[in-house]
Amino acid sequence: MFIGAAIFLVLIVMGGVIAFLGDRIGSKVGKKRMTLFGLRPKYTSVIVTIISGVLISFSTVAVMAVVNENVRVALFGLSRLQAQMNDLNQEIKVKNRELEKGKRQLEARNKEYEDVTKKSEETSRELDRVESQRVYMENELASVQDAYDEAQAGVEKSAREIQNLEKTKEELSSNISTLNEEKKTLLDNIYALREGQVVMQAGQILTSVTVDENMTREQTVQMLESVLKDINHMLKQQMNITDESVNLVRISQTDFDNAVQEIAGAKNKKLVRIVAAQNLIRGERLIVDFDIHDNLLVFSKGEVVYRGSLDAYKDIRNYELQVLRFLKDLNHYAQSKGVLPDPITGNVGVLEGQELMDVIQKVKDYGGQCILTVTAKRDIYSQGPLLIDVRVERKGNNP
Q1: What are the distances in angstroms from CA 261 to CA 221, 251, 256, 292, 365?
Q2: Which residues, including other chains, have CB under 8 Å from residue 360's CB and lie 6 or more apart?
Q3: Residue 254 class from Cβ within 10 Å (0-12 exposed, 13-18 middle, 19+ buried)?
């Protein structure tokens, strides 16, 4: 503002000086009767006056342009300044659009946060409900324990009542354990909701591969790197990540080298299971472990895997529970023979729902007086799963 006013004043002063000097020069030329190009002195003085004014104006502007940068910009850089202003205006428009986009994204993130907060509150309310049920069950257990103590004092008179109370106590204890597990699960869910979405659970098997014997070290390294690459691709698809350079899988170099050493040159086929070492929260990287075992044939197709009578479970009145207890013992037996369980569920296989219902119905038809024979549907190796057929026979029909 100050510079512009100063230039304006200089131009006013220089205009007056130019007019004065031009007039004086023209008058002197006219008095001396000088001629140019054969013109009359009158016209010569006019030409000299004009040329003097032009030279003085040019000199003034040239000096100001040399001395002051603003004058140079005004004379020669105005178009460039206008172009820069246009570019800046375009950048401002782009930044404004980006700001609006950022505002919309912020609103979306705020809505997601509200949804997560709402889910957390719902889970907290569910936790309170489970906690109240647990307290109620503990009170019930205390009451049963008191009644049990009283019944013990008069054991000769109330033997049957004591047995019933024992069973009730066991059922209540089982319910309390179940509720405690449910409470822990709900707490874990709350933490997961507060910290992020759980994509993988600790101990979950991501994939498993069977490796041939006598592999070289180079083949083993290539195979393990390929498996880790496939897992990374799977996780990126699951999390909707399109950046090819992102690596979501981590494993220590020591664990990787140990796995290579255990597999390379092995004389038996190996089962390699890649297991999540911790819960995977969306947005984080997954630490994995190698779980390596000999992949041996445990049961042949058609072989009798397990056989037993339901008399061992006579203390359980419910036939469904008797069959489930039998299958649980089968699960333990198969593990003892070398079938690897799922790290999370602890099971080596699952009997299809309809097959299970058919077995339970036959047990009911025979009044529990039967023998269950389990055979392998196909060759069962260490990696499982345990696929079985269950045959139910009445005890009187067996030799």
Answers
A1: 10, 15, 9, 11, 56
A2: 319, 320, 323
A3: exposed
The secondary structure element, H or E, covering residue 274 is strand 270-276
pLDDT tens across 117-175, in order? 888 788 888 888 878 888 888 887 777 777 777 766 666 666 676 677 777 677 767 76
Q: Are 92 and 25 in contact (CB under 8 A)?
A: no
User: How far apart (Å, rounded) are the C-alpha atoms in residues 118 and 325?
Assistant: 40
Structure-model confidence comparison of residues 393 and 316, the more confident one: 393
- Rounded to whole angstroms, the Cα distance separating 349 from 332 reads 11
Tally the residues of the chain. 399
Least confident of 177-186, 273-282, 311-320, 337-346: 177-186
Predicted model pTM: 0.45
CB within 8 A of 231, min separation 6: which ones?
Answer: 206, 207, 249, 274, 286, 288
284: helix, strand or coil: coil
Host H or E run for residue 40? none
Give bridge partners of residue 207 from the DSSP assignment: 274
